[in-house]
Structure formats: structure tokens, C-alpha cells
Write a structure and sequence with these properties.
The chain has about 425 residues and is mainly α. The chain contains ten helices and nine strands. It has helices at about 15-40, 55-65, 70-85, 85-105, 110-120, 280-285, 295-300, 330, 335-350, 360-420, and strands spanning about 200, 210, 235, 240-245, 260-265, 275, 275-280, 295, 310. A three-stranded mixed β-sheet has the order 3-4-5, with no helix packed on it. Helix 1 (about 15-40) crosses helix 3, helix 4 (about 85-105) runs antiparallel to helix 5 and helix 9 (about 335-350) packs antiparallel against helix 10.
């Protein structure tokens, strides 16, 4: 037979807080009523001196005309409780907004999520580290927001407003930022690899373009590898130049970009291009400290008089005849080295150039095959070394045999001369 424990459970923090609010509200309510009663009594003609004690306060309160209207006391208490709980209601609304944002993850379109993010910002809530990967947030206004460490990977941010926003270490990898306003934004160490920062055609006016604005932005050490920057606007904003020092532009497309009032000190331009052509030296020379930036070997060799610095960590794509891919017999006839170059080319096209013709499963197979071929090539080299070592041993043995034979012949010749004498 089980018996219920008579031990009472301690009150939860929320229950304690509620009782504290109720008792404090009642105390404030009766203090207000007592104070009004005192004031009313003082206004009577037959004033009398009295000592303040509990009995006197109860008598005065009972004479006060509002004491008979208990509903008014209830209303006053409710009003005090309402104002008391204002900040708790604000926190509850913030929690609901975060639940909506978290619940919409994985869904591209969600107007409520966009509104929730804007509301949180307007209420000065902490939105650093916001996760909005793949979200459709076109036109969102987060001007001046602190979005340190936020993630907008593959998000749609067309015409979004991030002016003067703090976007340090934010992730915009593969994001669509066409027509976005990033003037004066802090994008130190931000990830914009593969991001689309091109000028956008205005839907309402086909003759008008909306440029992505990065004037005066701080992009120091930001990653813009393989980014699309056609007609993106850099330059000066509020007296500040755009800072692209130590930024990465490897394989980025900087067609029609103006680098006037832009600092590219120690930036990396290995493999960068102008449209479908090689990098245009005239665009680069507009920037400040362009001679201190780093470029691919082919670009440096093409402009020897400029004494440009080499981006030695950039790997030139392997030389390969792409027509080989059109014929299986050609692929079958490739050597191990040529096949490795082919696989390397496909790997780079997928991981760095974001070629959509290759899916994840295909690339995983390519990587596996590439690793196997590397091991095979390593074994082949090892076998060659062993064969070379064996051949050397045989050569040394043959040399020693010849030396011994020659000595034997010399000794034998001496013995023959002795016998003759």
C-alpha cells in the first residue's frame, strides 16, 4: 500500500514572483486609498489633530467614499499589475518571435519570419548570431543592426538594407545580395564566397538598375572568392574609403567595377577575372595600394613592368583538354596523371566555381576515385623506386664481378709467367 508524502513541494520561482507581485500590488493599492482618504479628511472643516495608527487609518478609509466601491479597487489593482508585468510581456513576445524564426528554418519563403526579425531589431533585442540560412528576406531593413556572427547562407537578400550594420564574421556564402545596401557596413572576416553582388534590374522600371552598394564598407579579410561583382559600387561614404585590405577575391568576377577610393592593400586576386576575360589591369590600377595586392602567376607575368606580387597560394587550374569529356574512349586512354588532372578539374569546378552540372553524389564518387588513383600513383612510384634500387644493386654486383674477374686474370697471368721461367 502506497502512501502519499506529506512533504510540500517548494514554490517555483514563477509562483513566488506572482505572489510577490500580488501582495505588493495590494499594498500599493491600499496605500493609495489610504492616502486619498487622509487628503479628503484634511479638507473637512472640522479638522482635528490625530495620531497616525492602524485603527485611525482603517476609520479614515472606511469614511472614504471609494471604499464602498470595491470594483474600483479591483480595477486599480489590475492596472498596477498590468504595468508591473510590462517587461515580462515584452520578453514573452521576443520568445514567440524567436520561436517563429527557428520554426521557419529550412523554409525559403516566410513573410512572418522577415517581420519577426525586423520587430526584434526595432525592440532592441539581441539578434547577434541570427540563423537565417536559405531564407527569403528580400527588402528586409536591418540598417545599423548588430548581426555579428549571423548566418545568411544561400539566403535571398535582394534590396536588403544593411547600411552601417555590424556584420563581422557574418556568413553570406552563396547569398543573393543583388541591389542590397551595405554602405558603411562592417564586414570584417565576413564570408561572401560565391555571393551575388551584381546590379539588379528594377522590376517597376526596366530602364533603371539598382546597384549593390558597398561604399565605405569595411571588408578587411572578408572572403569574396568566386563572388559576382558586376557593377557593384565601391568608393567613399561619409568620408571613408571602402576597405578591402587582405580581402579574398580569388576567381571573383569584377566586371565593370570601379575601384576608385578603395584600398586593396594585400588583397588576393588569384584567378580573378573581368567578365569572361582575364583580369583587367586598368580596373586594378584605380585602387589604392594595388601594387601591394597579390595576383595569379599568369597575370603577374603578363604585366612585368608593374612589379606585382604573386598570390603563391592560389593554384592555377590544371591544363586540360575539355573535349576529352565528350568521348569515353578518350578517358579510357588517359594515363594516371592525366586522369588525376581531369578529376582535379571537376573537383575545383564544383567546390570553388559552384558548377551546378555536378551534384553532391557525383562529386563524392569523384573524390573517392581521386583518392584511389592517388594511392595507385603512390604505389607505382614506390614500385619504381624499388625497381630502381634493385637495378642499382645489380649494376653494383656486375661491376664488382668485373673487377674480381680482372684481378683474377692479372693473378693468373703472373702465375703463367713464373711457370715459364
Amino acid at each position: 500500500m502506497t502512501t502519499k508524502s506529506s512533504k510540500k513541494l517548494p514554490l517555483s520561482p514563477s509562483t513566488k514572483k506572482s505572489w510577490c507581485q500580488i501582495l505588493t500590488t495590494l499594498l500599493i493599492t491600499f496605500s493609495i486609498i489610504g492616502g486619498i482618504a487622509l487628503l479628503e479628511n484634511e479638507q473637512k472643516k472640522d479638522k482635528c489633530k490625530y495620531n497616525m495608527n492602524i485603527c485611525k487609518i482603517i476609520r479614515l478609509t472606511s469614511n472614504f467614499k471609494l471604499s464602498e466601491q470595491l470594483q474600483n479597487i479591483g480595477v486599480l489593482s489590475a492596472a498596477i499589475l498590468f504595468f508591473w508585468d510590462t517587461f515580462d510581456r515584452k520578453k514573452q513576445l521576443e520568445r514567440q518571435a524567436w520561436q517563429l524564426i527557428d520554426g521557419a528554418q529550412g523554409s525559403e519563403t516566410s513573410g512572418a519570419r522577415k517581420q519577426a526579425i525586423e520587430d526584434l531589431y526595432k525592440e532592441r533585442a539581441d539578434i547577434t548570431g541570427l540563423d537565417a540560412d536559405g531564407a527569403d528576406l528580400r527588402g528586409i531593413n536591418l540598417s545599423g543592426a548588430d548581426l555579428t556572427g549571423a548566418s545568411f547562407k544561400n539566403a535571398i537578400l535582394e534590396e536588403a538594407n544593411f547600411e552601417r550594420a555590424i556584420l563581422t564574421e557574418a556568413n553570406f556564402e552563396g547569398a543573393n545580395l543583388q541591389g542590397a545596401n551595405l554602405r558603411g557596413a562592417i564586414l570584417i572576416d565576413a564570408y561572401l564566397t560565391g555571393a551575388d553582388l551584381r546590379t539588379k534590374r528594377d522590376k517597376n522600371d526596366e530602364t533603371k538598375d539598382i546597384a549593390t552598394k558597398l561604399q565605405g564598407a569595411n571588408l578587411r579579410s572578408a572572403k569574396l572568392n568566386s563572388a559576382k561583382l558586376r557593377r557593384t559600387e565601391f568608393g567613399k561614404f561619409d568620408g571613408n574609403n571602402t576597405d578591402l585590405s587582405s580581402a579574398y577575391f580569388r576567381k571573383a568576377n569584377i566586371a565593370d567595377v570601379e575601384f576608385k577610393n578603395v584600398n586593396i592593400d594585400q588583397a588576393f586576386f588569384g584567378g580573378a577575372k573581368t567578365g569572361n576575360d582575364e583580369l583587367d589591369i586598368n580596373i586594378i590600377q584605380q585602387a589604392n595600394n594595388y601594387e601591394k595586392a597579390y595576383y595569379s602567376k599568369s597575370f603577374v607575368d603578363k604585366h612585368p613592368t608593374q612589379k606585382l606580387q604573386l598570390d603563391d597560394k592560389y593554384k592555377e587550374p590544371p591544363e586540360l583538354d575539355i573535349s576529352l569529356l565528350n568521348n569515353k574512349d578518350n578517358i579510357a586512354s588517359l594515363s594516371v596523371i592525366e586522369l588525376l588532372n581531369l578529376l582535379k578539374y571537376i573537383h575545383i569546378e564544383y567546390t570553388e566555381n559552384k558548377n551546378e552540372n555536378f551534384d553532391d553524389n557525383f562529386i563524392n564518387t569523384i573524390i573517392s576515385l581521386e583518392n584511389r588513383l592517388k594511392r595507385l600513383d603512390s604505389w607505382g612510384n614506390s614500385a619504381k623506386q624499388k625497381a630502381s634500387s634493385t637495378e642499382k644493386i645489380l649494376d653494383d654486383a656486375d661491376k664488382e664481378y668485373r673487377e674480381i674477374t680482372e684481378r683474377w686474370q692479372q693473378i693468373d697471368s703472373k702465375y703463367e709467367d713464373t711457370d715459364t721461367e
